[in-house]
Amino acid sequence: MTRPIIFCDFDGTITETDNIISLMKTFAPPEWEAIKDDILDQTLSIKEGVSRLFSLIPSSKKEDMVQYLRDSAVIREGFEEFVDYTAKHGIPLYIVSGGLDFFVHPLLEAYGPFHGVYCNEASFNDSTISILWPHPCDEQCGSGGCGCCKPSILRTLSLSEGSKVFVIGDSVTDLEMAKLGDTVMARDFLAEKCMENGIPFIHFETFHDCKEALEKEGVVR
Ligand code: MG
Ligand code: ZN
């Protein structure tokens, strides 16, 4: 039997909304909106845009930001059960996120352990927050500016092993890894992008839907 392996996005997928946007709304001066618009219309790469966004916030806000998200972020329904289910059946579950370590790890803390959590890193050593990029694009990624390059991670972890790759995500930043997946579970903007690109997908709203999809795919004995 082909070995299943799951790559799951974080912001807007595991959490119901995007945590970087939530932080900007609460902690950044109004200039953040113009930067966000430039990211969305692709005038700025995600990497450059996210760096600029966090440079607007003093490093001293770190604890306030973590606390704010701990209090306000909502984990999508069924996630805990889904994680337990994959663990029980020995299916590797990797979290691949364009979010930042200082909030991704605390918000996931209650659910792991995971096979791997890949995200960007924030540094609080200067007066304002700077971002480090430990998972850059490989030579095959056409973008070069992903920040945390999801298709590169997927290639490294799965393609050499002939695995059956499941991808779960919600937005355009998941599209390149969706193109590489065998089964795509999509909601929101990623679902639209999959339709535009002719990529078959299973629509999900809760992780109960994702669990059901795994069962239907027959990867669990
Ligand atoms: Mg997302
Ligand atoms: Zn890339």
Structural account:
The protein is an alpha/beta fold and 221 residues long. It has a single domain (3-217), classed as Rossmann fold (3-Layer(aba) Sandwich), CATH 3.40.50.1000. It is 40% helix and 16% strand. It contains ten helices and seven strands. It has helices spanning 19-27, 32-40, 46-54, 62-72, 79-88, 101-108, 150-157, 175-180, 188-196, 207-216; strands spanning 4-8, 93-100, 116-123, 130-132, 164-169, 183-186, 202-203. A seven-stranded mixed β-sheet has the order 4-3-2-1-5-6-7, sandwiched between helices. Helix 2 (32-40) runs antiparallel to helix 3 (46-54) and helix 5 (79-88) runs parallel beside helix 10 (207-216). It starts with a strand and ends in a 5-residue tail after the last helix. The mean pLDDT is 94.
Task: Name some characteristics of this structure.
binds magnesium ion; 7 strands; 10 helices; 16% strand; alpha/beta; binds zinc ion; Rossmann fold; 221 residues
CATH homologous group name: HAD superfamily/HAD-like
3D shape: globular
**Helix content bin:** 40-55%
Strand and helix order: EHHHHHEHEEHEHEHEH
User: What is the CATH C-level name?
Assistant: Alpha Beta
How widely separated are the two ends?
10 Å
> Overall pLDDT, averaged?
94
* Residue share in β-strands: 15-25%
- CATH-level-2 architecture: 3-Layer(aba) Sandwich
> How many domain units?
1
Structural class: alpha/beta
Please state how the strands of the largest beta sheet are arranged side by side.
4-3-2-1-5-6-7
Number of helices: 10
Rounded to an integer in angstroms, the radius of gyration calculated over CA atoms is 17 Å
**Residue ranges: pLDDT <50 for 5 or more in a row?**
none
The CATH topology is what? Rossmann fold
Number of strands: 7
Q: Major sheet: size, sense and barrel closure?
A: 7 strands, mixed
